[in-house]
Amino acid sequence: MHADFASRIPAWPRFDEGDEAAIVDVLRSRRWWRGNGDVGDRFETAFAEFIGVRHVRAVSHGTAALELALAALGIGAGDKVIVPATTFIATASAVLRLGAWPIPVDVEPDTLNIDVTLIEAAIGPRTRAIVPVHMAGQAAEMPQIMAIARRHGLSVVEDAAHAHGARAFGQALGAIGDAAIVSFQSGKLMTCGEGGALVTNRADIAAASFALHSCGRPKGDTDYRHVMPATNMRLTEFQAALLLGQLRRLPDEMARRDLMAPFFEARLAEAGLRPLATRPFVERHGRYMVLAWFDPADFDNRDAGALSTELRAMGIPAFRCFPPIHQTEMFAPGALRKLAGITGTPPDYAALPTPVADAAAGSVIWFSHTLLLGDEALLADVAAALASLRTGAPASVASARSAVPA
């Protein structure tokens, strides 16, 4: 059963003859960059319509999109930006690259989204923005986050890197905050290998983002005007051509994941895990990953790293949950010392209480969305392989719950 998992899981990324033709068209056009091509423009228009926003700025990767969104909002040296403690490091590193300090806030145990009840206590005089992450494609509590932000005069940038096509509160995720970002990295629900996009309804953010992503040059410039210090984050025409095909396939792939996710989550529960809950306000889950708590004691005291490593050895795309961002090496006092001259004294990251994020790092694993493109037999066998690693007795949901913080 174990040896053939890799061959049974649908290949990712997906492509078809239409993608091949689109790449060849760009190749033969000799218009490979945004300056003289139109494929990037066509993708931005199509993606804006899909999300339901006025402006899209396609860029080189999701981390660049985060940095671009924050820079367009004026975030800079010494500012503070509230982020969830459980997230990929880009959510924090984009803040640091602008000379600002990320302020991690603990997450909810049932969703691993930022705990809105803890946000206001983290706001201080230098706080400028909140970056909620829609973990695994499930909406954060956006109405409450927006209300807190408006009360304190803060901007909101949605990190929707996992949430292509997800919806809640009557809107697509990415269309609710002042701005949002998505990622098109290789494993994401839409991919061109590396890529990302800033999306917004605000004309001022869109206008600022153009020069910031294009060497400081205003749109349409041919005279080497450089109106601000900036870098080059432009997407290539080849990447945009791939993304048009990815966008075309996304609705069918989402439908397949929606169909298979409940079955897989039920099998994981039978194997002794506790899949994350889906909140009632979620109209459509992105399903970038399937996350589940487990009790290491039920698996011969394997933590999330050890358990996921064994599953990957079987060919199953399983991974440990992100460690709390402020407990990674880049947040060690010595590593941050070089920033202190620009941004002032760093926060005392070691003192930040994040018990849920701490527990999740050792007791939550996640499975790739590619499994949900498979069939029930595949998903049942994945759960059976997981159950085979248990200690002794048959699985029980109750035992998994014992690992979840109250």
Automatic annotation (TrEMBL):
Gene3D superfamilies in UniProt: Aspartate Aminotransferase, domain 1, Type I PLP-dependent aspartate aminotransferase-like (Major domain)
Query: What InterPro entries does this protein map onto?
Result: DegT/StrS_aminotransferase, PyrdxlP-dep_Trfase, PyrdxlP-dep_Trfase_major, PyrdxlP-dep_Trfase_small
User: Which Pfam families does UniProt cross-reference here?
Assistant: DegT_DnrJ_EryC1 (PF01041)
Q: Which GO terms describe its biological process?
A: polysaccharide biosynthetic process
Which terms does the record give in the GO molecular function aspect?
pyridoxal phosphate binding; transaminase activity
What is the protein's given name?
Answer: Uncharacterized protein
